[in-house]
């Protein structure tokens, strides 16, 4: 699933189908979050959360993730600094 | 970790890398990444054949892996905090703009306005059920009670309307569709009957 996510998020910037797949993947977590509010408000919350999800997914910078060598340098630097 | 099928030079290289990057390889993310056999093979390949191509392949594979973890964590916390904030906002609104009917009455915290509303359309009202219009239910004195029982149905009806409901003779006459004089006569007769009954018994004590 983790490997799949990378492709999906990249794809979702222009493909709505991919976006939908991602939202569905997070559905269980979303459902759990609904228990945080009043029973009568849950439908509203679900809608709002989905809206936010779309915002977050499309706004996420895929290339901000450090690569293998980048992370190695980061950890090395942290070690040297401390 | 599987080092089989590699030449000595390669094993040496790996040992060197391990020594140099101890902390990096201890990192839980790197650790779990290299646990995957495919990734481990890629990693060995890079150490033994450090070409740009191999490096990039490993880099890409790792990026996918790391991205998945980071993204999932990000979305999960985002969902959680958004839900919490939503609930906060909802409570705030509820507090600020209470519905008039739900507002607690000034001093009594437990009673809200909606408890005080009566339904004028309702066919059954509680007062009607509580309030009996039979004069027998209002009498405590046993002698007077017996006196009432001796009256005819007609007399009792008039007495009821006059003293329980508090209607005048004219009003009663309209209700019963009789003349006012007839009602007056019936009422007086009833009272007289009661009076005679009590006199006969002679037991009323006040």
What secondary-structure arrangement, pairings included, does this model have?
The complex is a heterodimer of chains A (82) and B (206).
Chain A: H1 2-12, H2 16-25, H3 27-34, H4 42-59, H5 68-81
Chain B: H1 8-20, H2 22-26, H3 28-35, H4 37-48, H5 52-96, H6 126-130, H7 142-150, H8 153-164, H9 169-176, H10 180-201
InterPro entries (chain A): HTH_dom_conjug_TS-like (IPR024760)
Protein name (chain A): Helix-turn-helix conjugative transposon-like domain-containing protein
Pfam family, one (chain A): HTH_16
Secondary-structure-based class of chain A equals mainly alpha
Main β sheet profile of chain B? none
Helix share, percent of chain B: 55-70%
Total of DSSP H or I helical runs spanning 4+ residues of chain B? 10
Number of strands of chain B: 0
Name the helix and strand elements of chain B from N-terminus to C-terminus, one letter apiece: HHHHHHHHHH
Distance between the termini of chain B: 110 Å
Unreliable stretches of chain B: none
Number of domains of chain B: 2
> Low-confidence parts of chain A, pLDDT < 50 over ≥5 residues?
none
Helix content of chain A: over 70%
Roughly what is the average pLDDT of chain A, rounded to an integer? 84
Overview of the molecule:
The complex is a heterodimer of chains A (82) and B (206). In chain A, helix 1 (2-12) runs antiparallel to helix 2. Chain A is built from five helices and no strands. Chain A has helices at residues 2-12, 16-25, 27-34, 42-59, 68-81. By secondary structure, chain B is an all-alpha fold. Chain B has two domains: 8-92, no CATH class; 126-201, Arc Repressor Mutant, subunit A (Orthogonal Bundle). Chain B has ten helices and no strands. Chain B has helices at residues 8-20, 22-26, 28-35, 37-48, 52-96, 126-130, 142-150, 153-164, 169-176, 180-201.
Short description:
Chain A has 82 residues and is mainly α. Chain A has five helices and no strands.
